[in-house]
Structures are given as C-alpha cells and as structure tokens.
Specification:
With 94 residues, this protein is α+β, with helices and mostly antiparallel strands. The chain has one domain (3-88): GMP Synthetase, Chain A, domain 3, CATH 3.30.300. It has 3 helices and 3 strands, in the order αββααβ. The protein has a 3-stranded mixed β-sheet. β1 (30-37) and β2 form a beta hairpin. α1 crosses α3 (65-75). GO terms for molecular function: ribosomal small subunit binding. One of its GO terms (biological process) is maturation of SSU-rRNA. It is found in: Cytoplasm.
Length: 94
C-alpha cells in the first residue's frame, strides 16, 4: 500500500474507533482531520479537532492509545502497527 492509502484508511479506522470510546473526556463529535505516517511506518501522527475541551480529549486519546492501536492493527493488514501520537489539528506547529 502507498503511504497516502495507509493514511486515508487509518483516518477512517481511527475515526470509528474514537467514536466508540466510552470515556467522558471524549466529546460526541471528534474529527480526525488527517493522519501522517513516517517513512518507516513506525509513527502515525493523528491530528484531531473537536468543539469541546481539546486538552481533555488528547489526554483521553493518549490513555486509550493501546486500545486504538489494537483497533488499527485489527482493521489494517500492516506488517507493523505504527505507534500513535495525537495532536490538536488547529495548532499550526509540528
């Protein structure tokens, strides 16, 4: 698979997995704006946005990282599942 295809599929998988989280810090509407994967596929950076408290959302996502990585591994046929990192999509620094 090409990197852009992996990023697009990972965006969809993460969107679905985040919507199913049962954490009070995760608002009803969370948008995964984009996912970027490093060239060696070791790290996937997910940029998320929400209307609510972005700090609490990022904390909840970091807390659920293991679960979300398992969901990505289950849904995608990759040799190695990338380590997930979460960022505020509205912050313009990388």
């Amino acid at each position: 698979m090409k990197p852009k295809q992996i990023e697009a599929q990972m965006t969809r998988v993460l969107s679905d997995a985040i919507a199913e989280l049962r954490d009070p810090r995760v608002p009803l509407i969370v948008t995964v704006e984009r996912v970027s994967v490093t060239s060696d596929y070791s790290i996937a950076r997910a940029y998320v946005s929400t209307i609510g408290d972005i700090g609490a959302l990022l904390d909840a996502l970091v807390n659920a990282r293991g679960h979300l990585q398992r969901e990505v591994a289950r849904a995608m046929n990759l040799r190695r599942t990338p380590m997930l990192e979460f960022f505020d999509a509205n912050e313009r620094r990388l």
